[in-house]
Design goal:
9 helices; 8 strands
């Protein structure tokens, strides 16, 4: 595998983002190459979501890192983010129409090839699988040109087995649960190549 073919890191925020998190994220992004950050907070409070989006957008854009949000596409549009990560049942076509051709529109497909294919046909820029067998990633990599993201339960063994057939690894709790998030992500980055 050449350097250009190495999987990239797609960094997920914690479900709860406090005021200090922007500084932590800045240190992590300064230390390890990250392709994209996904604002993945659990609160539905619009003011808190907007505040987090504003703070993290500044950190990401200052480092030329794309930032998407897990949520409705209106949030990405309103808060000047680079795109959206859609959950099950969300319309990729509607998100693409709203955000335009240059926005990132990603779709979660669980372990379903069918859902992944439908998302790709509807205009998704990537499909994310979790709980999928290595065979699903291998099949996707061989048959489909659309980039694939692996997420969920990514230990060293799983990273190694999926690296040849995955474009992006969605890393989150593996980093934020560590005492030193920078060191944790550096270790993961080193394992990828």
């Amino acid at each position: 595998m050449t350097q250009a073919e190495q999987p990239q890191i797609y960094l997920l925020t914690p479900e709860i983002v406090d005021h200090a998190f922007a500084g932590t994220l800045a240190r992590v992004l300064d230390a390890v190459p990250v392709a994209c950050v996904r604002l993945d907070i659990s609160t539905r409070d619009a003011a808190k979501r907007a505040q987090a989006a504003d703070a993290l957008r500044e950190v990401c854009h200052a480092r030329d890192v794309a930032i998407v949000i897990a949520g409705p596409p209106e949030e990405a549009q309103t808060w000047g983010l680079d795109g959206v990560h859609l959950g099950p049942g969300a319309s990729v076509r509607a998100a693409r129409k709203m955000l335009g051709p240059d926005a990132i529109v990603g779709a979660y497909a669980g372990a379903s090839r069918h859902d992944g294919l439908n998302a790709g046909e509807a205009g998704a820029d990537y499909v994310a699988f979790d709980a999928a067998e290595t065979e699903t990633f291998a099949w996707w990599s061989e048959m489909i040109e659309l980039p694939v993201v692996a997420e969920g339960a990514l230990d060293a063994e799983r990273l190694a087995s999926l690296a040849p057939v995955t474009e992006f690894f969605a890393i989150g709790d593996e980093v934020w649960a560590a005492e030193d998030p920078v060191a944790a992500l550096q270790e993961i980055g080193a394992a990828l190549g």
